[in-house]
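User: Teach me something about this protein's shape.
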Amino acid sequence: MAVRLPRPHRFDVYAATAGLLGGLLLWGLGLGVRPAGEPFVLLGAPWVPLVPLALTAGCEVLRRAAPRAALLTGTAALIADTVTRGNLVTIMMYTDLMYAAVLYGPPASARRIPWITGLLTVAGAVVPYALWRVPEALLIGVAVGIVSFAPASTGLIVRSHREAADAARLRAEQTALLAEKDRVQAVTAERSRMARELHDLVANHLSAIAIHSTAALSLDDPATTRRALGVIRENSVAGLAEMRRLIGLLRDTAGDRGPAAAPTLDGLGALVEGARANGLDVTLEAEHGQGLPAPVELAAYRIVQESLTNALKHAAPGPVRVRLACGERVLRVRVTSPYGGKDGPRVPGSGAGLVGMRERVALLRGTFGAGPEPSPSDDSTLWTVRAALPLDEGDAA
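Assistant: First, the predicted structure itself:
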């Protein structure tokens, strides 16, 4: 299988071309790093320095695409350059190869190369000085440090800064994603809360209006029609007032008007009286005490309100029982109504009421159940709504 060579970066091609042209210019002017007669110049032919120059320029093309291979090949070219007159551009391009190997190479290479070049720098200073015992021998270590350790250290510093910047950018993106997720969740929760409030506020009145208007249209009795129209008017006015209050709360952002107080269990009496006025036979047993958490009172009130609305729409004729009992840090709500076919006008349900009640109980980490069950007193069937609301969760909310 053919090996696909990495594609060089455009800037690296420009840098290699500029380095090659600059090296050729210095060679053409006869400028070398060492004199031709120096003992270390083993290859004195004029064209020989061009070979390491061309090889290093070729490595410069791959400084970003294959940094380790470019550095190894460039090191071999630099060693060959030391036994010729040399070319300053070859050394400069090699320092760039060392820098690129640390900056663009694998993390393991980026950690090892500065240590290796640091040891070579120390060895380049200590070993010649130990052999020759002259201060000038220390300059060999300085030259090795300038050519290898300095660019490697610079590449490591730049790489560390880039990684820190990438990590900070990633954290910022994650923070933005989490913030957006929190915003979406908050909007969803607020929309669900508004939907529950709107349903609980208006459904009872609209159900009564629908049932009584159907009765008024079905019965040819002026007295019955008049009573039905009276109930319709009362529920229309009450529903309109509730809608205006809710819309006012949603629109009011100036702070010049405080929000209306949330319903409490003290209002259950009025709620039951309204259900009786709509035709339900309702009895209330409340043993809840005082000082309950506001979220628990609101949830219990809405559960009773929705249960009475469902009884008005769907229950068969018969008594409706509402019972609240508080004990063991739990408020228990139970509403029963006759289950079976209803004689008279019916109102179709969407199921949103049960969903809203279940959501309210879940927010307080309570338990909720609704469904038919046998009556303990006779052979009839009751539709029972049960809810257990922990008072501790209400305090936390």
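Now, about its shape. Residues 10-174 form one domain. Strands lie at 281-287, 319-327, 330-338, 367-374, 381-390. If you'd like, I can walk through any region in more detail.
User: That's plenty for now, thanks!
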